Records
---
Amino acid sequence: MPTVSVKRDLLFRALGRTYTDEEFDELCFEFGLELDEITSEKEIISKEQGNEKAEGASDVVLYKIDVPANRYDLLCLEGLVRGLQVFKERIKAPVYKRVTPNGEIQKLIITEETARMRPYAVAAVLRNIKFTRDRFGSFVELQEKLHQNICRKRALVAIGTHDLDTLSGPFTYTAKRPSDIKFKPLNKTKEYTACELMNIYKTDNHLKHYLHIIENKPLFPVIYDSNGVVLSMPPIINGNHSKITVNTRNVFIECTGTDFTKAKIVLDVIVTMFSEYCENPFMVEAAEVVFPNGKSYIFPELAYRKEIVRADLINKKVGIRETPENIAKLLTRMHLKSEVIGDGNQIEIEIPPTRADVIHACDIVEDAAIAYGYNNIQMALPKTYTIANQFPLNKLTELLRYDMAAAGFTEALTFALCSQEDIADKLGLDISATKAVHISNPKTAEFQVARTTLLPGLLKTIAANRKMPLPLKLFEISDIVVKDSSRDVGARNYRHLCAVYYNKNPGFEIIHGLLDRIMQLLNVPPGEKKGGYVIKASEGAAFFPGRCAEILARGQSIGKLGVLHPDVITKFELTMPCSSLEINIEPFL
Amino acid sequence: MADGPVAEVLLRQLAAADGGLDSAELAAKLGVEHQALVGAVKSLQALGEIIEAELRSTKRWELTAEGEEIAREGSHEARVFRSIPPEGLAQSELMRLPSGKVGFSKAMSNKWIRVDKSAADGPRVFRVVDSVEDEVQRRLQLVQGGQAEKLGEKERSELRKRKLLTEVTLKTYWVSKGSAFSTSISKQETELSPEMISSGSWRDRPFKPYNFLAHGVLPDSGHLHPLLKVRTQFRQIFLEMGFTEMPTDNFIESSFWNFDALFQPQQHPARDQHDTFFLRDPAEALQLPMDYVHRVKRTHSQGGYGSQGYKYNWKLEEARKNLLRTHTTSASARALYRLAQKKPFTPAKYFSIDRVFRNETLDATHLAEFHQIEGVVADHGLTLGHLMGVLREFFTKLGITQLRFKPAYNPYTEPSMEVFSYHQGLRKWVEVGNSGIFRPEMLLPMGLPENVSVIAWGLSLERPTMIKYGINNIRELVGHKVNLQMVYDSPLCRLDAEPGPPRTQGTA
């Protein structure tokens, strides 16, 4: 969930009233926001870097507000204020308009070289805008929030904003060999080639995260003006030439990316939020983008869409009984201008360009419910009549757990993920013999594979509890995972039961006795006949030679028991003899 | 034992005594060790009301080892004086005597002796007086005889400074007759035996009383894991509410069932390598229900079922990518898909509690794997009010009654609501679960009828358990670093009962 940080006093000024922290928290809760933290720059710095560094930092109160991940229109002060003011019916939702300039329209021409890495671009102009320091800060911050969220860290969309008065169109969005791109990047005093920049930014804490998007590509995307001035090298950095400042009056915005829909949404969000400060508020100057196929589009789209939803559907989905007129009012408060039409039961809803999250009637239903107030909805119990069933494997597991504890064994709960070493090397096995599934992106060795046996987890539990009085008797009934090409995903779980006995003597007879008890509980008689069970001398890498037996029940091998090999004991950092048993319980379902 | 000679003597003395006896005095009188007498007192006390004994502590002066030596052989200065013959003694020789050094200076300051430094063989010591009174010895002998009170405060403190006397605290008993006083004591029985029962001798025998303050002997037993005890209770609650358990025994899932089927777009951050464990082997799902896959693809990329869709290029290879399921909602999706294939539609209530995996940053409350609890109801005409009603019943069974609901965003539910409950300890509203109505874009491609709604909610098993058992670090609860003593000591899990006292300290 994105967090937006706004100055409290600035927010209250824009809202036209003040709130206590509790009142504002309550308002957020009702609207689906969360007042996450009340802090200040000073407090943040002192928390992160210590009191000394915080000396002199601003102690203006900041509200950190958590915003739902799909509400890009609430990612800045301007949007939050507009949302809350409309919600509280203090203002009407503005109407956003695209206007064609009197003079020449700004043009962005896409060349076909971009096709292979970032084929889409959109653009718009904010004409005669008036920034202040706070507005400018918010403008920069919104771009950063969009980059981090909908733009997926610039992978899907990257935004560039420029002082149009320093440039001269038409603009060209193309791609070139890195060595052929040379310009003065933002906040640098000399020119670098793209290759040099990629090296420089490797140590830049902010930019280094975006390099991978174009690194190793033969061509890098780049935007030029008609004089060959570099506007930006998306998604990495803008040029210094067209840098915007608090004094900039005309802003050229370009968004390039791999996802056309998202690029259009991002552009719509930026211009709807900041056209508020233009000489003609909420009017956005159009720009033309020419695609390599020659087709030309006008942006921003600023599309309004109409949906018609029946009032009784909304009532039925939410569980309320409101008149269509009231529902229309509720929706209008959520920035969805609505009116009752047709037979008087239909509501026509206008979805503004700021609400890209509304893609289905269910999104409209939710907004009606939020405006109605979730906590005002009458609770009811569904009349759904059903007979409950347990999942048979879990039912058997539950029954066995109780009787394992009754037999004196204590239950452990160990991780399903572990290192290759745990399930192979430490048990004297080769990893290829385990049929284990392998994780491709583990952050540490603890998450290399899914376990193929419960034994390592129990031995590690003992190792972590060596101070406890002996004997230690542990068990676990849980799932292991192995590859299995007969399953749709190519792997499956097996429910295993594992038990260990750790003491000054190996206690094979105790583990053997436990097996006898388990078989008794499962109503499996001893002996090979009539679906009984036997144990037969066997060998296993994890076991001491001559102290291992295979368990055969109902005509199939279900596991092994025995005295652990001293090497295994040592590798798990244990010192005492230990016997264990591990079986698959699924044949007993 | 109580029938020892000391105890008998004690009782006889007590019978003759007027009121009571001091144990120390009696020990001195009888010439036995005080400790032996105390033993007799204690064993008589254990027999019941035969005697009463009141603990008293008295201060007493005692001689130190050196003090005893002086009481016996005289003070160092007296010994020095006595060792000097009339003709005197060479000082060097005198200094070699055991008491020489200390005694010499003391005798000098008492002016009992003098030194002639002009003697021919070096300094020589002579008596000054004919005889001396060894006052130190006399005083110490008084103390030894138990008459320390005859000495003045100043005299005693001087002796103490010389480390000849020390003050000790003596614990003595003031012993008096008890309500069942008798001089003839019979041995008390400790336990009832089969012979006593068969012979009936138990009727005539006194029994040693039990000490009910002592701890019992804990039974040898196995123990269930606290988290799984809580799991059992949650299963129980769902079963009580008529919910059927879904199969969740498949940790490995395809991206399709984990994300795409839930209408979670392929660029969603949760599908990032940083959040999800993907598999290297087996890297891809072998089979997908292709008809259904096509409907899902269309809904994502173009919309349909009343939806605008996400309008992006949906890729099958992305859906095939295997992973460790990030939520049990993937199992719910499979269950709902199976339900959708059954015609006609029958309403269903499902639940599951099982492990899920996240490639997250680990801290005191986050592990790479945890248990998710999930409840699902599918029926015609379910409303948000129904969802809230079910949640109220569910949380009431957990002992949580103060609930409120906050609008939220989940990719696969709309409307969505976070469930908050008022935490008395923290004095604030805390999130206890997440819920919503599954999106039509998820349900309709499965083949569920249009007027069927599916409400669902989820929460983690670990969080309520940590709160229940007062555990701050999740590693103490889950995984091999668990504290087994904690497992041994953990109480029953009764979610709707008042919380018990905090668990025992010292073992943590």
---
Amino acid sequence: MAALREAEFAALQGLLKAPSKDAVRQLCQDCFSSPPAGLGPLAQRACPGLAAGPEEAEQLVSALHNLTRHVVYRGLTRAEDILSLFPENFHQNLKNLLTKIILENISAWRNEAQASQISLPRLVDMDWRVDIKTSSDSIIRMAVPTCLLQLKIQEDAALCGNNPVVSALTVELSKETLDTMLEGLGRIRDQLSAVANK
Amino acid sequence: MGLLNFTRDPVPEAVSGDMHNLNQLSAQQFSALTEVLFRFLTEPKEVERFLAQLSDFATMNKISLGPLKNIVKSILLVPNGALKRNLSSEQVRADFIALGLSEEKASYFAEQWKVNSPTLTRLAVGQTLMINQLIDMEWKFGVTAGSSELEKVGSIFLQLKLVIKKGSQLENVYVELTLPQFYSFLHEMERVKTSLESFS
């Protein structure tokens, strides 16, 4: 499957009107990071810099978004693989520049894609403290240690955009519960080692 | 009546009368009644069973159930107070004698108290207030094979489901951890265990 349609590659050549290589670099990064919904406003902001009309800018931004996303999706890491995406008649210097920019950014972009993957709410932090219960309505004098565990959990990043919702959950564990939990965690660790050693 | 160990409040009037009635029971009858009582104390949820056993006791020994229930109420005052105050069996014995129970029966009850008190103490501790108690933890881990942004991923994820008691309801909390986070979490929990053990 071709990375882009012919018309999209044509639109990319609009980059030749960009004021500098750094401008192209910045635009590549913005286009990759932007979700599809954000491409419209991005195109509008790019118009003056590219000396292009709104429609032209939109097509360019969309094509650049698709190209960068395609490379990351496929996990292409070699210059030859990226160069071969472009059609024969594509402007040579622009092709080389784009390939160079993409190669520079590929691992950062890959990390970005992985970080913004859908997932269950993620653990972002944890704290604990140990208390000694000395008295209660059922026993007037005692010395029972107990653990309070606070987990900071962040909701799915994709749903929250730039304002991730982090909630703090405080949980109490008795010694018995902790022992059982550690047993379970130990089993996970053993299974992980088994998988890693395969 | 001198100072009692199991309570600071004045004891209801009826108690000395109930103790007197208890003294009329034979040793076997008292022993059977004590057994019923301790079975209830160690399993406080089994109220119906307790009442049924009391009723059987009443029938078998030709005692009316009403007065028997009052006697039982009086007796239970002592172990309940003793549990709250971590009383020794000598203190329990002394209290029963102070209330008017015969030495023989007081000693017998105190012996039974000694035998059962570890279980009863554990039950009382278990009833102590806990905030958002962790009831259960389920987990799964696997490999993310691909996503809409990355055709091939191959990263490990770990998902935990924590079942938490909030008030009287259970709530499920789902959390995902990366591998480094998991190892860090495991390390911290082991530190907690060491800390808890040093205080036990």
